[in-house]
Structures are given as C-alpha cells and as structure tokens.
Specification:
The protein is α/β, with parallel strands linked by helices and 318 residues long. Helix content is 48%, strand content 15%. The strands form four sheets. A five-stranded parallel β-sheet has the order 2-5-8-1-9. The chain is globular and about 70 Å long.
Length: 318
C-alpha cells in the first residue's frame, strides 16, 4: 500500500477542515489503528464536516446520528418490520450499518442508547431479538461531546469511555485560520470547485493496517509504553503528587491503543520504526479518558492533561 494516497488524502482534508490539523491527523490514525474516537469541543468546529470529508476520501458511506433524550436503541441498530401481506418479519438496518458514523452529542442520549452504540463498537455486530447481524468490516465511530452545556446530559461512565481508542480535545482556530474559513465558505456558497482527491479503497485501507502492524518497534519502546501505563496504576512508586492525583489507572486496552496509535503515526510519517516521540505524541489522546482522578486533584484544579505531563516527566525512555 502506497503512503502517497494517504498523504494526498491528508492534504485534501487540510483544505476542507481549516485550523483543525490535530483532528485530521488523529482521524487518520484512528482509521489506520481500527479504532473509534470521541471528540470534545465547542460547537461549530467542523467535527461533522471532518468525518463527512473523510468518508468521501476513503470510498465509504457515512451517516450522522443526532443523539437526543428520546432516542431508542432500535433507532441505531434497526428493527424487525412486520409485513402483513405474508405475515413475516424483515429486518430493517439502522444507521450503524454504515462505514463511518458520527454520534453527535453522545451524552445527550440515555444509557441504553449509549450501550447499544458501544456494544457495536466493541463487537462489530448488533443483536436484534434473537438474531445477530455483523457490521461492515470498515466501521469507525466518531462521537462528539459539547463541554459547554452539561444540563440534561448523561455522561459516559469511565468503563464505557475506555472503549474509545482516543479522546480528542479541540478548540477554536486562530485568526489566520478563521480568515481561510471565510474564504472557503464563500467559495462553496458561490459553487466554486473545491479540491478533490481520488478515494482510497477499503482494500487499500486494510492493506495499510497490516503494514502499520508490521512496523518495527524496539523492545525499549515497548517497555516504555508499558512503563507509562504502569505509572498510572502504581503512581506511588513514582511520585507522591502522582499518587494523590490518580484514583484509577489505565487498563490493558490502553496499552494496546497506545501501541496501535504510535505505529499508525510512525507509518503516516513515512518511517518503518516507532520512536518514543510517536508514543509521546499520542499519549494524551489515548489516556486522558482512561485515568480517573481523585477528589484532591479536582480540588487542586489538576487536569488529566497535567497528570499525563507529569508522568512523561517521571518515566524514563528505555
């Protein structure tokens, strides 16, 4: 699989999602690492536009689901439809049977709906009645949360958040990017032709995933990944402050996610080996939703990002 196709896709996405390079980069990492991501940020930051543009660039279908308090699990999975003419039931697929799914404001829907989505993410299948249906081989969920409004929401429990490969935090673009957004929006309103890209086939994506898994990772880098995870579980061995800040550390799923994302980043940067810098670059996105802070940390105003920065300063490479 040629890296040039992904380079072309990344450059195309940069022209369509201005000022959010981190979102674009991590969408591609999630695609290559075969995982799902949750994106947290104020409204209007092109979250929907980003995954829609990705769908057009990878030969995949896309569906957006607006999560609301009255949403039902069947609204995601689909349901059996009764046909009175012959007395039979026919399964009608729901929006989860798409390659790329945007779960917009996932914390607006109750726990049963969230569980239906997270089961699909974890198992790659849905069960309706007594029948189980497989989801597409290429299946990526991007869920969003609005950090500004928390009234009437259903926050995802930590155990459910652990199902997401990464948790991204995005913010407003800078002034220069804002000007580019104005020009892009004006051009689209005037129906001016925008840049296009040759869609990457699903076969090529699966081949790229195999290459990502085959990238060389030195034993010292593997140990570094494990040491970072262990530091979240036994913080008292590293630092008194760390022990006072962390209530619950990351699971083995986090170790796997850190390995996969570091490999994907190395591959996207045209390297055949994983460096410690790759691990450090993806660590915050992989771990910020997987560590549970203590009340003392919250009282001191310590964020998960600050805790992870502290861990990086304590854990040696190799």
């Amino acid at each position: 699989m040629s890296l040039s196709a992904f380079d072309s896709l990344k450059k195309h996405l940069y022209t369509q999602i201005v000022g959010q390079t981190s979102l674009v980069d991590n969408l591609l990492i999630a695609l290559l690492a075969n995982g799902h991501l949750i994106v947290e940020g104020p409204p209007g930051l092109a979250k929907t536009r980003a995954i829609n543009a990705l769908a057009k660039g990878v030969e995949a279908d896309f569906h957006r689901i607006q999560f609301t308090p009255d949403l039902l699990p069947a609204d995601l999975t689909g349901t059996d439809i009764y046909r009175p003419e012959d007395g039979t039931f026919t399964f009608q697929e729901g929006p989860l049977f798409r390659n790329l799914v945007l779960a917009d404001e996932i914390n607006r829907a109750p726990a049963k709906v969230q569980s239906a989505l997270l089961e699909a993410m974890a198992e790659g299948q849905v069960t309706v009645g007594k029948t189980t249906y497989n989801l597409p081989d290429l299946f990526l969920v991007m869920a969003t949360q609005n950090p500004l409004e928390q009234e009437g929401t259903y926050p995802l429990p930590e155990a459910q958040l652990d199902r997401f490969l990464m948790h991204l935090e995005i913010d407003y673009p800078d002034a220069e990017s804002e000007l580019e957004i104005l020009k892009l929006n004006r051009g689209e309103a005037l129906n001016q032709a925008s840049s296009e890209v040759q869609p990457i086939t699903q076969t090529d994506i699966f081949a790229a995933r195999q290459e990502v898994l085959s990238i060389h990772m030195a034993p010292a880098v593997e140990k570094y990944i494990v040491d970072l995870i262990i530091a979240t579980r036994t913080p008292e061995k590293y630092d008194a402050d760390l022990a006072n800040w962390i209530n619950l550390g990351a699971s083995p799923r986090a170790t796997i996610a850190l390995d996969r994302c570091a490999r994907a980043r190395a591959w996207l940067n045209d390297r055949d080996f994983v460096s410690p810098e790759d691990v450090q670059a993806v660590m915050h996105n992989v771990l910020r939703h997987r560590i549970l802070l203590t009340y003392q940390a919250e009282a001191e105003g310590i964020s998960a990002n600050q805790v992870l920065d502290h861990i990086l300063s304590l854990v040696a490479v190799g």
